[in-house]
Amino acid sequence: MDKVVKAEMEKEFRQALPKxxxxxxxxxxxxxxxxxxxxxxxxxxxxxxxxxxxFGSMNLVDLDSKAKFNAWVANRGLSKHxxxxxxxxxxxxxxxxYAVVFPTSRSQFGSASSFSTSTTPSVSDVVDSDTPAxxxxxxxxxxxxxxxxxxxxxxxx
Length: 157
Fold this sequence. Notes:
There is one protein chain. The termini are far apart. The chain is built from six helices and two strands. Helix content is 50%, strand content 3%. The chain has one domain: Acyl-CoA Binding Protein (Up-down Bundle). One of its GO terms (molecular function) is fatty-acyl-CoA binding.
């Protein structure tokens, strides 16, 4: 895969992040949708989940943690760039599924109220101070500056 193709995949991935963040903020996504995005995000940013100690130390009663782990492991073997491409594609599929309309300018992504869906209540009805900032990462840019250093903060999920 050449550098131009990789750069385009990374660009699509970065453009999908605020869209996913907005859908999560509006509580549009189901648990299954969130877990799928989580698994793809982890594969795109961390690579294969090789630490089986995570699973061994996991509270098996905590079904959310187990589901996240399983979602990540389900993407084992995908390259980081393939996972980025699938993440961006899945965000677009989910936006269509839930009839989400995003703002046209990047500057409008700062406000959760700047997009609409035909099936969700207003922002004030669903957003509270405990809502995580992103699906799979912290708010703001997820790139640390260079092309190969996309980072994540999974403590938000």
